[in-house]
Write a structure and sequence with these properties.
By secondary structure, the protein is mainly alpha-helical. Helix content is 75%, strand content 5%. A four-stranded mixed sheet has the order 2-1-4-3, sandwiched between helices. It contains four helices and four strands.
Amino acid sequence: MSSQTNTSVDTLRILHRIHRQLTDLNGRRRRGPNLMLAHQANVKKQEAQRDRIQDETTKMKVATDAKQGRLKDGEEKINKLKTQMNTATSNREYQALKEQIAATEMANSVLADEILEGLERLDEMAEKIAEAEKLFAKTSEEAEKAQQKVQREEPLIIADIERLEAELSEHENQLDGDFKMLYLRISKVKGAETLAPLKGEYCNGCSKLVPLNNIANLMLDNPKPAICSGCGRMLYVPENWKQK
């Protein structure tokens, strides 16, 4: 293509650049709320995990306290039975009381082991609660920072989008003839995917080989509009293009 580059081709290059920038900005604008939702979901997850551990700990503490109460009752029962043994009036009564004491001591031994295990488990749960609290605090802080970042950046992104949309409209109006008609027709369907530059002898949008006669046409000083037969994008020659 000569140094007298066709104005419409220059405009297509600019339009494609603006489309790419708008695509990036709109993507960033959409990612902001999605990022916040992801952080909020993580906060809820960590909060539920912490609450689950706390609930499990509470139930375990209630169960352990109940066993300690039963152990105390068992010890009192043993003391009472021992007193009754001292006043037993027959050997048969004495043996019966002795057997009750042995059974109660056995039950108390089992309870004591379960209580010790429960107390050790409660110590472990206390560590888990501390870790869960720390993780919940961390995710909450990260969510707050993410929200502040999104709130800080969103007005800037919106301003850039509005500026670029104005530039897009301005350069679209610079197209004329068949270029404008074809561009507007394709852009109604494809939006930001309206344009594609050549990459060697291929369409950079879909990698389909572009016929040599189409390439030759695009290299003219006043080329006709060309459409990729693969993806339907409007083709143009990028700056510093080289045919491979």
